[in-house]
Here is the input.
Amino acid sequence: MDTGDVLAHFAQADRRQATVVVVTSALRASVEDSGDHEAGLERVRHSLNTIGRNFGAEWNPSYYGKDLVLVRAGKHSPPVGVFEDLLGSGPAGGGVRHGWALDHISLAGDSDARRERLLRACYGISMAARMRRDWPDLQPFRADDVLGQVPRLLSVRQGASLLAGVLVRPLGSRETGLGAGPEEDPRFPGLQSADAWEAFSAAPPQWGIYVVSDVHDIEWGTPCRRRWGARLTEGNAHQMLPLATMWLNGSLPLADVLRRAYQLRVHRESLLLGHLRTMSDAAAAGGTLFATLGDGLSGIVSDAALLRTAVTTANDWTAGQMHSGAGLARLGEAGLGTARRHAHFSLHVTKTLKGTVHRERVLHVFGEPLSIDAADSVVEFLSGLWKAGPGTPGFHHLAHALRWRGWWHMHLPSSAHARLALIFDSGHDKSAADT
Here is the structure.
C-alpha cells in the first residue's frame, strides 16, 4: 500500500507517539545491474515487500516511492535481527543494496495534523536511510544522529542533492479536497496509477504505440549545449544550495534546514504533478498514460504526433523549471515486452540529446534514424562522458549506450560508427557497465 494512505489511516486514531522506520533502496544500481528498468524496479519492490512482511503486521508496512515505510504506535526499538537477515545485498535481500533509519515521533492535534507530522518525519528519516545506505559504517540509526554527521561527510553540492532527492507528499490531505480518487496515484492525484497500468498491460492492444517519458535531469537541471553557462531548466538541487551551505557550515540548525527544505520540495512536487497532468490530459484524446514510481509516465497512445504535442505542451507549462523527453515504440506481434525495451532505448536517445536544438530531445520513435547533425551531438555527449570517466554526473548514460550499442548503430548514420567505436571499445567498458 502507499505510505500516504497508510499514514492517513494511522493518524485517524488518537495516538500520541509513533515509531517510524524507513528502508531505502539503491534503485538505480538495481536497474543498471538488471539491464532493464522494469526488471530492476521489480527487484526493488520484491525486496522491500519481503522486508515489510518480516517486520510483522503491527508495523504497517507501505511504499514511499522506492522506499519502505513502517509505522507503529508507541516507542519501539527496531527488530535488528530482521535487518541483519534481509538488508544485505545477497539473495535474502533480493540482491538490492539497502539502508535504514528510525525515529520516534510525538503526535498532537487532530488527525490531519498527525498525518502531516508523520509525512514530514518521513522526509528526514528517508535522508538518514540514504546516508546509511551509502555510508554503511555509520553506526547510529536515529535520524537526527545520522544527519548530524552529514557536515563532515558531504560537500555542499552533495548535501543539496541529499535534500533534493527525497520524495514528499504535497497533496491529498482532506482539508484541500485534492486527494487521489480510485485507481489514481496517491502521489499524483488526477493520474491513473501504475497498478491500473498492470491490469491493462496483462492484455494490451496488439497495435498502437507504447510510451515512456521522464523528466530530464530533475535534480540538477539541463544545461544548454549551444551557449556555455546557460541553462534550459533549473533542478531541484539548485534550490537547495543555499540551505545546504548553511547546514554544512553550521549557521542553520538541522530542524530549520529540514523545515525549509520540505517546503521547497512540496513546491517542486506540486510543479511536477502539474507537468505530468498536463502531459496526460493532452494525450487523453488518443490514449492513456499512467504514473510510475519516478518522474515520468508510461502507457499506450494511437499517434506519435499526438504524444509530441502532449510533451511539448507540458514542457512549455514548466519552461525553465523542468523538461521531459519521451521514447516511443510501435506495438506489434513482438508484444509489449519488446516494445517496452525499444521505448526505453528511445527515451535514452532523448537524454543524449537534451540541451540541443534537435527535435529528438523531446521525442524519439524507435526505428527512426537520426540525422548527421543529431548523430554529431550524440557522439559529442557520449565522448564527453567517456573522457570525464566514472564518477562524472550522468555517467550512467554511457552505461546505457554501451548496453545498447547495437541499437545505436541501427539508428545512426555510418559516419558516426567509427567515432562511437572509439568509445564503445575503450577501457571504460567495464567501469561504465558497473556504474
Observations:
- The radius of gyration is 22 Å.
- The CA atoms of residues 1 and 384 lie 42 Å apart.
- Residues 254-283 form the longest helix (30 residues).
